[in-house]
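Let's do one together. I've listed all components of the complex below, 263 residues spread over two lines.
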Amino acid sequence: MAVTVTPQNIDIAATLITSTSVNATLEQDITGGACILHAIRLKTSTADDVFFKIWDGDGAAVVVGTTAPDMILFAPGNDTVTYTFTDTATTGGGIALTGMSIAAVHNVGVADGPGTEGTTNPLGALSIHAVTTPA
Amino acid sequence: MPVTSALAAGSAVTFFRDKALTNAAVVADADSGSIRMIDCDNTANASATYFKLYNLAAASVVFHAATPGSSTNPYVVIPAAAGKRIVVTMDTTDVTFTTAISCAALTTGGTLGTTAPTTAVGMRMLLA
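Okay, and this is what the predicted structure of the assembly comes out as:
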């Protein structure tokens, strides 16, 4: 998959991360280190539900389908959903990550797709837009 | 004790609250429903807690420490670091679980794990 990281020219030094083809192949450390995750927009392109997974760290030891993800977000089929994250104790806070490694898998069934399991690519492209700031 | 209640008479939105969520799954919605907001309160703990949501009735959620395929796969996992309270909002009603909405709190992400947080955590949700 191809991931594009675009620094935003605004005071908070936000970074916009985009990809139109997140799949079951791990994309390691897309932020190049620690970050605060504020929001993710997930867009599916078929009726197939997709599970978007995040591993906290550089992903060097991650095996998709085996290594437990730190975060899992459900992306309904033929839909767009935006998740926003707020750390209630920190102004401008979100979810702190030491690195952000990602993959997305097809919903084969309750036993394979959600959770840790699942190694099958989504049936259609999953597009993501994520907003992060430096840790 | 988990409580689910309508926000107002006739409202399609319900509020779920469990002030002491732990490693025993509890039901937030006994049938299909959508999630609009999740409030994960881990302020009482010095270690991370993973808030997990299942598209199953609570009684059907199984936890196992080490055997893949023996534990129920969560549809959503939200991590809250030590001492943190994380609020997650969704912009649509389309994060819909077709069977039921159940939740639990554990000390590991992904599917496996049986260990409860040292101190039970708080979880609140707005459901539609």
